[in-house]
Amino acid sequence: MKIVIAPDSFKESLSAECVAQAIAAGVRDAMPDAEILCVPMADGGEGTLDAVLAATHGERRYSEVEGPLGQPVTAQWGWLPGTLTAVIEMAAASGIHLVAPADRDACKASTYGTGQLIVEAIEAGAQRIILGFGGSATNDGGSGMLCALGALFLDSSGVAIAQGGLDLQRLHYLELGALDARLQAIAFEVACDVDSPLCGPKGASHVFGPQKGATPEQVLALDSALERYADICMSTFGRDERGFKGAGAAGGIGYAAKMFLHASFRPGVELVADLSNLAEAVQGADLVITGEGRIDEQTLYGKTPAGVAAVAMAAGVPVIAIAGTLGAGYQRLRGIGISAAFSITSGPMTLEAACSGAAQLLRERSSEVMRLWCLGRSANQPVQVDSVP
């Protein structure tokens, strides 16, 4: 029997590769002779770099850059030998995890470090740069990234405005003469699972600003600042991308990628699936096991289990999902090809205990799931179970 294991990471607990290995251990406990193929996955956010490097045997590189609030950060990025492709996860330089909760400041946080990583990739000879957007501490519309690439954001006196999203309200014009000319020869691809526009009630500031430390008053000010930024860009370029689905990703850096880098956008899970040859892996499989930290109704909208299920369905292979927790509406996943979903928790448990013991819990639950699966196959009848007691 061939089993393909293609999970996302369990946030703040295990990487996708570690999740896959823990599930594989449980499968082997129940089925020692099974052929197991692990394909770690991600959806464009945190963990994308790890998943891509694990799947492609890419090279992990390190660069010293500015963090969200200007502090020095050692950021990881990836290099795929033989393809002149760099993989940059913006959260590595500009992520919210780099700022203590008490210090988070959506008004001042900058994507400058992400731009520095792009410069590093250019210097390495990249002709293709894959950008993973998600988990940012920022709300600057990607202006910091553009400054690192040579753009100048000037006020009415011709003085550079401050880093961060709030000072964009003073933006008067852009000076792009020093923007790195090498950008024009690079193909940028954005892996993203967010379809928010730049501004408005569903935009970057309103939807994501509060979790980055913005007060209700600051959310309004940041949204207004991004509107001014988009107005200046429209007058500069003669086109308006603020309503583009994905422009609001990672504090609006999606807007900058579309407007200035002419990036193509794809659901992150699709891009990672292509890089990891998931479609090839599931050919001839008897079962695919996927999962993520929390599975609920939101999983339907571009998250890893949904993307994996789409690939498996195309190959006619059934899918089971294993999660840290199951939330409201998870049953809707049956409509996209996930036959059953299971939680790893075996009873009342704190989040800390679940995270620290996730590997063992995954192994135990996977073993029980496979024993049940084998029982159903031997009886030649489908097994329809939503959770294991």
Summarize the structure in words:
This protein is of the alpha/beta class and 389 residues long. Helices cover 35% and strands 19% of the residues. It has 13 helices and 13 strands. Strands 3-4-5-6-9-10 form a six-stranded mixed sheet, with helices on both faces. The longest helix has 22 residues, at 216-237. It is elongated and about 80 Å long.
Per-chain topology:
Blueprint: E1 2-5, H1 16-30, E2 35-38, H2 48-56, E3 59-66, E4 72-80, E5 85-89, H3 91-94, H4 112-123, E6 128-132, H5 143-148, E7 152-154, E8 173-175, E9 187-192, H6 204-208, H7 216-237, H8 249-259, E10 264-267, H9 268-275, H10 278-282, E11 287-295, H11 304-314, E12 319-326, E13 338-343, H12 351-356, H13 358-378
Parallel strand pairs: 1-2, 1-11, 5-6, 6-9, 9-10, 11-12, 12-13
Antiparallel strand pairs: 3-4, 4-5, 7-8
CATH C-level class of the largest domain is: Alpha Beta
Number of strands: 13
H-E order: EHEHEEEHHEHEEEHHHEHHEHEEHH
- Number of domains in the coordinates? 2
Quaternary organization: single chain
Q: State the end-to-end CA separation.
A: 26 Å
- Classify the beta-strand content into a percent band: 15-25%
Strand arrangement within the widest β-sheet reads 3-4-5-6-9-10
Low-pLDDT runs: 383-389
Alpha-beta classification: alpha/beta
User: Approximately how much helix is present in the residues?
Assistant: 25-40%
What CATH architecture of the largest domain do you see?
Answer: Alpha-Beta Complex
Q: How is the main sheet built?
A: 6 strands, mixed
For this structure, the CATH topology of the largest domain is: Glycerate kinase, domain 2
